[in-house]
Amino acid sequence: RQPKQKHKLEMGKKKGKGKGKKKSGGKKTVKLSEDQLKRIAQADAQAIKARQEVAMSVRWVDGLRMWFQDHKAPAFDKLRMSDKDGSGILSGDMVAECFRTLKIPLSDDDLLTLVESLDFDGTDEIKYCSPPKSGRGYGAGLQEFIGRGLERVMYNHQQDLAEIEGDHVSALEAIKGGGASAASDKSAAAESSGEVEDEGEAAASDGGDAANATAVADSSEVPVGEA
């Protein structure tokens, strides 16, 4: 009966599942140097500054929407007075001069941006006199036309932000990748140096063995006269 009891105890043992096993294949963290951390901080600061500058460059957009909502009628009148042939088309300079006369609340640079955004065909022919699609009232078509131009301004704004983010990511990858490359080169150089040392030791050992063999051969050769 003793063997049976032993058999029962052995059958009752349970094997542990996955105990003591370590997961492999995890990503190795690369320790960054102080110089790399400093450069990363500088890249972050440059990206923040660039974002702020882009944001500041379009602060006038919302205010201009409100301004045209209140001044769409006199603005439309001014453009029509400048349109001598009644074609409904004006050059960029003429549109800008009309807006200056109305004391539009924009700087010269922002006014130029607005006028360029209204030149949809890139031909310097601004077709200001378009019928409204949804708005009502005198000058509603002009207000919608201005709104489409401002949408172009904001689209370019989003493109600028995306470019800044892309440049920032590339800069960070270059900084981190450069450090990893330098560490790899250093390790390769160390390995190469070790190999050279090993080869030197092997050559020295081979040279020593050759010298010993030559000495033995010389001692075994006895002149015939002496023998």
Q: Radius of gyration over alpha carbons? A: 41 Å
Please identify the structural class as seen in this structure. mainly alpha
Taken from the alpha-carbon principal axes, the silhouette is elongated
The percent of residues in helical segments reads 55-70%
Given as residue ranges, the uncertain stretches (5+ residues, pLDDT < 50) are: 5-11, 210-227
Mean pLDDT: 79
Give the tally of β-strands.
Answer: 0
Beta-strand level of the residues, as a percent range?
A: under 5%
Amino- and carboxy-terminal Cα gap? 89 Å
Query: What string, H for helix and E for strand, traces the elements in order?
Result: HHHHHH
Total DSSP helices: 6
- In this structure, how is the largest beta sheet organized? none
Write a structural description.
It contains 6 helices and no strands. The protein is elongated, with a radius of gyration of 41 Å. It is mainly alpha-helical and about 230 residues long. The N and C termini lie far apart (about 90 Å).
Itemize the secondary structure elements and their pairings.
Blueprint: H1 2-11, H2 34-56, H3 60-82, H4 92-101, H5 108-118, H6 140-220
Helix pairs in contact: 2-6, 3-4, 3-6, 4-5, 5-6
Keywords:
227 residues, mainly alpha, 70% helix, disordered C terminus, elongated, single chain
